[in-house]
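so my prof wants the structure for this chain in the tokens format not the other one, which i didnt know existed until like an hour ago. anyway here's the sequence
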Amino acid sequence: MAKKNDTFSPSRGEPGPMYKIQKPQFYAAASTPILHDTLSGLKINTKCQVIDRNNQVIPGLYACGESAGGFALHGLPRVTVFGRIASREAASANAS
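here's what i got, hopefully its the right format
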């Protein structure tokens, strides 16, 4: 964890500030992007129902977003589209 007067050092491979900071007190931290998607998550069908190893639907189990695998779609569209499908299908299955 950074301390109050720690500084970033370009010699350690850390970027310098993009603009001059005029007034203290300020805090900063180095950040590194990471992979956050799973392309091999749970197998689902077009209704977002989870499929088991025998290609059978697991009743009452739905997956969407980062937990559902096998899609090249990334980020917010993946969550909103499949989240809507999963919630709609779960609600209609629950109603019957």
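also thought this was worth mentioning. Helices lie at 76-95.
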